[in-house]
Amino acid sequence: MEDVLTEIPPPSRFFQEDLNNFTPPSPPLPSPFLLLSQNPNEAAEPPLRPSVLIVALSSPSLHLFHNVSSKTLIGTLVLPETPFSGNSINPSLKDKSCNIYSLDRHQNPKNPTLLVSFQCPIAAERCHSVAKLLISQQIVPQRVLILDSIQSRNFRGKLSRDEAVAFKLETTSERKAPSLSLEYFPSASVVDGLGAALMAACEINNIKATLCVTWPQFGASVLSLIRSLIFPALDLDLSISPGVDDYSQPSLPLFSVAQESHKKQNMAPSLCFRTFILQFMLLVFSVLNTSLHASEPPLTLDYYASACPNLFEIVKKEMECAVLSDPRNAALIVRLHFHDCFVQGCDGSVLLDDTITLKGEKKASPNIHSLKGFRIIDRIKNNLESECPGIVSCADILTIAARDAVILVGGPYWDVPLGRKDSITASPELADANLPTANEGLATIISKFLYQGLSVTDMVALSGAHTIGMARCESFRARIYGGDFEATAGSNPLSQSYLSSLKSTCPPVRGVGDNNITAMDYVTPDLFDNSFYHLLLKGEGLLSSDQELYSSLLGIQTKQLVKQYAADPVAFFQQFSDSMVKLGNITNQDSFATGEVRKICRFVNT
Question: Which of 132, 140, 143 is nearest to 174 (CA)?
């Protein structure tokens, strides 16, 4: 009788393609870091050693301390994965920020009381790195007070909507001399998130710490409770702005939305925060599924050497014609390249027109009035399709054209790695979220560059491209009429004359003259040089986001780089070349799998 046992394995219940269908792990996120004031009279060198570190996490505590007028902004905590889009230059409760304030620096300069206000949620997987940064690396406090809210899902017992309550948790060293007379958090109730991570860091480092949790999560009653408990315990003489008690709803929609999202979906805290971050950044950063990076993509310098040997000559000739006819075209192409790479990587998505089945990026708010030069790319593509049809991608054309544009107005040369594919998708949502805007603060701009894998040095160098090109009145109206220009430029007669010229170009009324333009570098507007940085030194940067590089209290590194590039044009050219290569190397790996070489840059192939 034949043996029924064989060496043939039983059939799998899965298809082979399903067995290999595993999403690769996301690249590790850059570490959070602190940006501190460069003014030696306002902030000491890290590590800071405050007598008390207050960490405000709950909406009522944020509202309360926001209305404390006697505080000084000395720094901010930057999470590279969170572009703080839309933040104002002056601190606001509407910002998504993690600012650091001194509450009594003038009275106690060596060991002040510091406040850290978390106005954006921290994902669960980032809580311990943030706690370690605040407790033992950059800040070494003598005592810590953490103000958080009770989450009803974690509380064992009944909570009344009308009754304000507060409980505490303490580290071992704090229990020996408690600073707050409160009941302890009930047994079997849970505290999680950043508050728990901070308490753990304090316990490990033997630091006196109290976690005060309150309920309800917002309202005038809990605000009064916090004020009556905390201020006497801190022994601080803090002046409060009028109207602080007019608080009946969350000042921060950010937190209320996160909490409602959790209630509706019954998610674990870490998943809730992660999902909220992705939703808040318009659902399309795709941190878990898309790998955007600025290093070592599958690109080579000789990618078209045999398939299209005349590529560089064809691009160069067309760019020469375009720049000779109007030098402004050089800036238009460089801007196109930048706006392309910051959305889905350098994949030509910015070139796509709207169709019935695809919504392009051209009408996104950062692009609709600022992007031109598409016809130049169309002409280059037409010439290349005649020479070597179906070979050169539109993404590569744009990258080469940007390099040639800089050279044609006096800028540096750099080798361009090639081999990009054109995407078959576009994302106006990502354009809104990822692209820096003219009135954003320094921390916001830095976070957007770090998210792309670009450093602070890259950011300052690439900003030097504003030495060519124009800006619309809408982009600099707030700077010239809000008093910011006078604050940075001073009373210099030449600066005042420049300001008068700007005001004649840009009326103060919104909607009037929005499209009027002026050069961002009025000294040498058609020459790529380091004049842009000299303007920043004089406080005459046209855009608020540009002047922030030199004038921001947080600009320790950026200010030094501005000075360096103003003094050494060779150093600027070298760094700009290196940073442009890194910018061009931001790739979306999906485009190499599903991308194509478009026949017409405005439309995907049919």
Answer: 143
Q: For residue 318, give the amino acid letter.
A: E
Active site residues: 339
User: What would the pLDDT profile of 401-424 be if each residue is shown by its tens digit?
Assistant: 999 999 999 999 999 999 999 999
Tokens of 327: 């030098």
Place of tokens 């849970």: 190
Query: How far is 41 from 148, CA to CA, in rounded Å?
Result: 31
What single DSSP character describes residue 349? G
- Start-end of H helices in 247-327: 253-265, 269-280, 311-325
- DSSP-derived secondary structure letter, 26: P
Residue 183 · residue 213 · CB < 8 Å: no
Q: What are phi and psi of 530, to 5 degrees?
A: -100, 20
Asked if 170 and 198 touch (Cβ cutoff 8 Å), the reply is no
Residue at 185: amino acid letter: F
281 pLDDT band (50/70/90 cuts)?
Answer: very low
Average pLDDT over residues 35-64: 76
The average confidence (pLDDT) of the chain is 81
| pTM for this model (two decimals) | 0.61
Question: Residue 396 pLDDT > 90, yes or no?
Answer: yes
Which residue would you say has higher pLDDT here, 91 or 68? 68
3-class DSSP state for residue 536?
helix
Task: Print burial letters for 264-287: b (CB count within 10 Å at least 16), e (below 16).
Answer: eeebebeebbbbbbbebbbebbbb
Mean pLDDT for the stretch of residues 24-53: 69
Residue 483 buriedness (CB in 10 A; 0-12 / 13-18 / 19+): exposed
Asked whether the predicted pLDDT for residue 565 surpasses 60, the reply is yes
Residues in the chain, how many? 606
The token pair at 233 is: 């315990």
On whether the CB atoms of residues 347 and 421 are closer than 8 A, the answer is: yes
Please give the helix or strand (H or E) that residue 404 lies within, else none: helix 394-408
Q: Which residue has the tokens 């004038």?
A: 551
- Residue 22 burial class via C-beta count within 10 angstroms: exposed 0-12, middle 13-18, buried 19 and up: exposed
Q: Which amino acid is at 287?
A: V
Q: How many CA atoms lie within 13 A of 13 on its CB side?
A: 0
User: How far apart, in whole angstroms, are the C-alpha atoms of residue 70 and residue 106?
Assistant: 10
Burial 138-157 (b: 16+ CB within 10 A, else e): bbbbebbbbbbbbbeeebee
Distance CA 49, CA 110 (A): 7
Is there a contact between 68 and 91 (Cβ–Cβ < 8 Å)?
no
d(CA 598, CA 606) in angstroms, rounded, equals 10
Number of other CB atoms surrounding residue 470 within 10 Å: 18
Whole-angstrom distance between the N-terminal and C-terminal Cα of the chain? Answer: 61
Residue pair 515/472 in contact by the 8 Å Cβ criterion: yes
Cβ count within 10 A of residue 564: 16
Task: Evaluate whether 133 touches 194 at the Cβ level (below 8 Å).
Answer: no
Among residues 102, 172, 99, 114, which one has the least CA distance to residue 144? 114
In order of 167, 214, 243, the CA distances from 225 in angstroms are: 11, 9, 16
Tokens of 106: 């003038």
The C-alpha angle with vertex 256 and arms to 255 and 260, in degrees rounded to 5, equals: 120
**Residue indicated by tokens 């070298």:** 574
